[in-house]
């Protein structure tokens, strides 16, 4: 086998294309926000959050693609899609899959699109099984514990170029 005298030069990582599109992906049971354990998650519905984010996105010159699913593989497919669509970033509230899904960890690592982990509550102050976050192991940033405002803070981080 021939060996080259010099190591192959490494190409710089291809920067993600800069569209104004931000995917906002929501996992299981978040469709029930508003009535689901309001003492933890508040009474704001996912539609309310979508409306608030769309308004803020417009002010920031961004565009929101808001989705919710109760199925893990769908979140994986949407993460791939976000990259294929050259999304600027993904805000991901994977809900309970945060704490269980190696598939989501791998998907976040597999794409160049930066992912911000978002939670309404602060899982680190809740049951110990919520302290592990597979999503957080690969996410560029985590915003948690601010209720619906966690999404807005994450969107503003995208707009400011923090992520
Ligand atoms: C959540 C926190 C998770 O631990 C939980 O499973 C959820 C919601 C949040 O937004 O606070 O479903 O992601």
Q: Can you tell me about this structure?
A:
The chain has 163 residues and is an alpha/beta fold. The chain has one domain (22-160): Dehydroquinase, class II (Rossmann fold), CATH 3.40.50. 35% of the residues lie in helices and 16% in strands. It has six helices and five strands. It has helices at 38-41, 46-60, 72-84, 102-110, 134-138, 149-159, and strands at residues 21-26, 63-68, 89-93, 115-119, 141-144. Strands 2-1-3-4-5 form a five-stranded parallel sheet, with helices on both faces. β3 (89-93), α4 and β4 form a beta-alpha-beta unit. α2 (46-60) packs parallel to α6 and α3 runs parallel beside α4. The longest helix is centred in the first third of the chain and has 15 residues, at 46-60. It starts with 20 loop residues before the first strand and ends with a helix. The model has no long low-confidence stretch (mean pLDDT 93). 1,3,4-trihydroxy-5-OXO-cyclohexanecarboxylic acid is lined by residues 29, 93, 95-96, 98, 119-121, 123, 130.
List keywords for this structure.
Rossmann fold, globular, binds 1,3,4-trihydroxy-5-OXO-cyclohexanecarboxylic acid, single chain, 163 residues
Précis, in short:
The protein has 163 residues and is α/β, with parallel strands linked by helices.
Which helices and strands, and how do they pair?
Blueprint: E1 21-26, H1 38-41, H2 46-60, E2 63-68, H3 72-84, E3 89-93, H4 102-110, E4 115-119, H5 134-138, E5 141-144, H6 149-159
Parallel strand pairs: 1-2, 1-3, 3-4, 4-5
Helix pairs in contact: 2-6, 3-4
Bound molecules: 1,3,4-trihydroxy-5-OXO-cyclohexanecarboxylic acid.
């Amino acid at each position: 086998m021939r060996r080259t005298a010099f190591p192959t030069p490494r190409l710089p990582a291809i920067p993600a294309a800069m569209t104004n599109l931000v995917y906002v992906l929501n996992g299981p049971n978040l469709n029930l926000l508003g009535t689901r354990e309001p003492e933890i998650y508040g009474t704001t519905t996912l539609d309310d959050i979508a409306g608030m984010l769309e308004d803020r996105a417009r002010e920031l010159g961004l565009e929101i693609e808001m989705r919710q699913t109760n199925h893990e593989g769908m979140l994986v497919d949407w993460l791939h899609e976000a990259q294929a669509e050259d999304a600027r970033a993904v805000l991901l509230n994977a809900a309970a899959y945060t704490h269980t899904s190696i598939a989501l960890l791998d998907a976040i690592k597999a794409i160049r699109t930066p992912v911000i982990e978002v939670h309404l509550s602060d899982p680190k102050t809740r049951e110990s099984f919520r302290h592990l976050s597979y999503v957080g192991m690969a996410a560029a940033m985590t915003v948690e514990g601010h209720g619906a405002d966690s999404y807005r803070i994450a969107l503003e981080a995208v707009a400011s170029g923090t992520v």
